[in-house]
Amino acid sequence: MDLDLNVRKEGDHAVLEVGGEIDVYTAPKLREKLIELVSEGSYHIVVDLEKVDFLDSTGLGVLVGGLKRVRNHEGTLQLVCTQEKILKIFRITGLTKVFPIHTSVADAVASSE
Amino acid sequence: MLPAEAPRRDQATVRLTFPPEAQLLGTVRLVVGMVARKAGVDEEGIEDLKVAVSETCAVAVTDLAWAGLDTPIELDVMLESDRFGIEVRDRAPVDQFAAKGGAIDGGELDDRQFGLALVGALVDDIASETLEDGDGHRTRFWMRHRADTGPPPPL
To answer: What Å distances lie between residue A61 and A33, A65, B70, B146, CA to CA?
Structure first.
């Protein structure tokens, strides 16, 4: 079990594409990547969850932590997700009210430009 | 929490015993998902079960790590005519969570409480209690078969 993380730039945004399973074992890797991005000056981040097969509360905590970090720099953290099983986790935890969730990276980037 | 309704044992039980290592949780999810699919649980229910099992086991793994213990975690998958159950038992000291002040790793959220709350939202019935000898925890939850599915086939 592993977590694939790939970063690319789209304008002012860093797009972090995540693949695999985010749980208590792999979430620290995601946390480190988000910290790294912010420390490098990327304050507008889009996290693409379309290739995520599993997400638990640890992963949610890491995303909330990332959101706090970018907000400290007046930045944004937006999500891309269309998978019902992942969206359900955000809905039942109330985090759909915290994160802007988009259906594509292009929508996410356009929404904050 | 009050004890969950005890298993009736009128169907099969699948039992896993595994060391408290976070990297094994993916395998545990895989096994539980396969048993649930074989038992006739629908795909949405399987996804809910995977999250619930993973969260419950992650709490046990974290509590045992905090206590410096490597005693195995036991997990029962209980199949009954109208419901699918999970029971997780660990040997983590009961009073250590209060001693460490609630936060597992100083992270952004209280992962332990948040995780168990998520389980509660996904399953029909959950309860957690201290083991009979006072040294460890038992967390049990059930998922009832949806109205449009029949009883599970035999394993």
So the answer is: 14, 6, 26, 31
